[in-house]
Amino acid sequence: MTINNQIHPLHLSFILLFVVTALFCAFIIIKILRNKKVPKLLSEEKYRSTLIGKMLEFSNKDISVFNIWPYVSQLKSAKILSHKIKERELIYKVYRNLTEDFEHILLATEKDNNYVVIVVDKIKNKIMGYHLLNQDGEYDLVA
Asked: Would you say the pTM of this structure is higher than 0.85?
């Protein structure tokens, strides 16, 4: 018996089929990962445009806060918010502008005086995005 060093055409077609399938799967996975929804960081200009007039502070008990928890999960997945902060301690303050068009929900972070602000468009009833706030006195409050 002699050993044939040639690759049989059937083996070659299986190898080719395997390579094409692997490339197709890699393409699909990359496409899915690129389309993954990520939280939108608002530009400074867009964020400032939501600060119409004075911002009124509301306690969490006084108002029904927009359901932010799916968005908070996205912020945690994107490592914008820490997993270490408990959900009951996450909402620091809630503000609305005088026209009640926008709601700003300040979320606590691990650093003092640093917050992640979720901006909600109350008219469209959807989240516009988030803003990183790292200073005191940002809001012109009405007592």
From this structure: no
